Amino acid sequence: IASPVAFDILPLKLHAFSQSTPTGLDCVGWKRRISAPVIADGALDKTALTDDVGSEEDLYEDFRSSNHRYGHSGGGGEQLAINELISDGSVVYAEALWDHVTMDDQELGFKAGDVIEVMDATNKEWWWGRILDSEGWFPASFVRLRVNQDEPMEDYPLKVEGGKQDFGMGQTTKDQMRTNVINEIISTERDYIKHLKDICEGYIKQCRKRADMFTEEQLKTIFGNIEDIYRCQKKFVKALEKKFNKDHPHLSEVGSCFLEYQTEFQIYSEYCNNHPNACMELSRLTKVNKYVYFFEACRLLQKMIDISLDGFLLTPVQKICKYPLQLAELLKYTNPQHRDFKDVEAALNAMKNVAQLINERKRRLENIDKIAQWQSSIEDWEGEDVLVRSSELIYSGELAKISHPQAKSQQRMFFLFDHQLVCCKKDLLRRDILYYKSRINMDDMEILDVEDGKDKDFNISVKNAFKLHCRDTEEVHLFCAKKPEHKQRWLKAFENERRQVQLDQETGFSITEVQKKQAMLNASKQHHAGKPKAVTRPYYDFLMRQKHPTLPTTLPQQQVFMLAEPKRKPSNFWQNISRLTPFRK
């Protein structure tokens, strides 16, 4: 997925710690003190807590300080192991999960799939790495450690006689590499199921017992459809286990499992789209101490590792990202003669398509904030909000418009969204200010290309023109572009708009009323506050943690599309101003 929101809070080797209780914490003592009041009604009993150890605040501070004292964190074990390898002179490689585009010369840019040599991993969020001759900081959340660290940088140029090296039992080097990948797929799936179970039984079950603290709507916002994902993944793991050859893992045939469940994996789209809302709702709740204590108690009772709830809720987002990477690696070490080769190849394409669908829906949802803020900047807006019918800006630009034969040509700015074309007028003096004029329902329109010359309907000579014709009312709008290439771009944009509408209908994409209202509310607040018109990203701010002072100050974000701002056109207005009588705007 291109959207880099899936911070790697749960590392690749997390299963090494998943069965253990938090280091340096007397979990037995804690469970003895809080298990009875929580299990009884699903929440902390203040009396039971304070009788033993004083106030809730003292208890929680003691818990936090004990964690800090022993330095236990979600990624601490893996991070320590990486640094030990580096300090011993070993070369540690990581593969990029997403593109990292940066303008900072202290940061290392790369593309998804690039291999990075990790040179320093002392900081939890930013690592120092090298690609060829370039070195710099990069976000640790954008990469994963390679399964086969001993593998050379090239695809497979092992210098062994005949391209084969015997590992016993008739296995070649490539077979051993395939064994490593298969084992990783199986082990990470088992760990993932445990995390999903812990969330469903450790958090959701307890939350539902506390109707005084959580409404069903809140729980739906926080946890999304994670219970559906849990049920789907349990079936998927069982299918994987049946195909897993314990004695000879490299002979396992797991490709068919991914093909069987590719449609069901689309339920991740709903979860990924809801995840920003979950983070914001959690951020709001955890400002109140009783929710902080409650979530910590749930985690301890379930004997989960020391990661906050938002970290666990991130695992499904991470998981769907990693399937194409795992399958690509599996395909690389699967011989074409292997019985699993064609299925793995097809599974890789299928999971890429699933990830692409989820990513596209995610991007569309991120766009609505920008569209809402664009609308709030338009003066004299009339009618319903753009987001009532649209969620995507297809194209924008300047055109001359004629609505009927007797009308004069009007130079206007047009914004083509899915389902509608919005018309705006530039301010006479401040060309960056736009006034709302009208809109056209694209669902009722057909696009007609017009040849250069005299138009019969409007009885005028036209150049670079096209028409929008309403099938129901026979209403016709004539548009003229300045250049032939501009006309072609508009014609292509109209095709893309219809294609987008059809795709949304086929895939069932839609934006909820809550999301629309929230986007407009945020845009309205920002507009009245007089802040610069830019996308605010509380979602990313919520995920951020403290950073090393010498490191980059912000985590990189996915590029958000910008609405095309009309360029300032050269004008002789100010040259002729002396000829005009004095005026005030």
TrEMBL record:
Report the record's Gene Ontology biological process terms.
Answer: intracellular signal transduction
Pfam families the record matches: RhoGEF, SH3_1, SOS1_NGEF_PH
Which terms are listed as keywords in the entry? Cytoplasm, Guanine-nucleotide releasing factor, SH3 domain
> Mind telling me which SMART domains this protein's record contains?
PH, RhoGEF, SH3
- Tell me where it resides: Cytoplasm
Q: Where is the DH domain?
A: 177-361
Q: Name one GO cellular component term.
A: cytoplasm
Occurrences of domain SH3 (ranges): 89-148
**Which residues are in the PH domain?**
392-499
Q: Which GO terms describe its molecular function?
A: guanyl-nucleotide exchange factor activity
Task: Report the protein name in the record.
Answer: ARHG4 factor
Q: Which organism is it from?
A: Smithornis capensis
